[in-house]
Amino acid sequence: MRIRSFDKGKAILFLVATPIGNLADMTFRAVEVLKNADKIYAEDTRNSLVLLKHYNISSKLESYHEFNQELKSEQILNELKSGMKLAIISDAGLPVISDPGFKLVQMAIENDIAVSTIPGASAGISALIASGLAPMPYTFYGFLDAKASKRKQELEELKYVSHTLIFYEAPHRIEDTLADLLAIFGNRQIVLARELTKTFEEYARGTIEEIQSILPLKGEMVLLVDGCKEEIILDDPCKKIDELIALGYKPNEAIKEVAKAMHTNKNELYQTYLLYKNKK
Ligand code: SAM
To answer: In order along the chain (280 residues), what is the average pLDDT of each group of 10 residues?
Structure first.
């Protein structure tokens, strides 16, 4: 299905990036789109008013957040169907990324309505490029579960992923998360990117234990974790295959991935894996 974004007179849902701390990180285009929007839906209207006032944006503003999205979705769809140009913003960064908006995107697409992104800051990818950890491939995970048991299970599923991992984390949970991370991943290299774009911006780089020694740390933070290295996979390739299958890979895809990481023949690895499974 193809939908052109900018057909004249047609409805459109704009997903507009806003700054993650420094008000100056607003693009000219974001200001223009918000000024011309028939209505702006914001996660927290009080927060957004500060930004909108700063840029003299006086478009109509209404709330759209986690707790009223079911209720508001129908209204928003009807507005779009009537030809309105709507903009979605969140408290910081890109809407939809660990923020509300995904349901609206799906709903708009299902109804053949154009969705367009107005790019700008996002904490995860901004932290990644300055972290010094491999920028590609990466896995953006967002927030781990707040419940300890679920969080540990999530980390177990991620421990053999070779990509750099990006997590959002709250300052009051970072101690527990690092303790779980150390227990499950071992003492990997990590980066805590804090207060990005603000006066007290800081990157703390080191092993998990080194970063634990400087806690507590306040402020908004992104936690980046070095990917699983080949040596770890080599120690236990069959376990790694099982891990990937648990993540949703088909067995032959999982074997192919691990073989690639080990620079080994996938048919040989398949035989090893069969033996391992038969022994179990
Ligand atoms: N939509 C946002 C984005 O595109 O980055 C993320 C919103 S999420 C609700 C908020 C989390 O993003 C924070 O808990 C923190 O982990 C991260 N974050 C947001 N602003 C940040 C900043 N200035 N410095 C570090 N992390 C930040």
So the answer is: 90 98 98 98 96 98 90 94 97 97 96 98 98 97 97 92 96 97 95 98 98 97 93 77 89 90 85 83
Ramachandran quadrant class, 82 (left: phi over 0; alpha: psi -120 to 50; beta: rest): alpha
23, 191, 221, 223: residue to mutate for ligand 1 pocket, most atoms within 8 A of CB: 221
Is the separation of the CB atoms in 149 and 42 below 8 Å? no
Q: Candidates 25, 44, 102, 220: which one to mutate for ligand 1, based on the most atoms within 8 Å of Cβ?
A: 220
First to last CA, the chain: 47
If one counts every other C-beta atom within 10 angstroms of the C-beta of residue 264, the result is 14
Q: Output the pTM of the full model.
A: 0.86
Element (H, E) at 36: helix 28-36
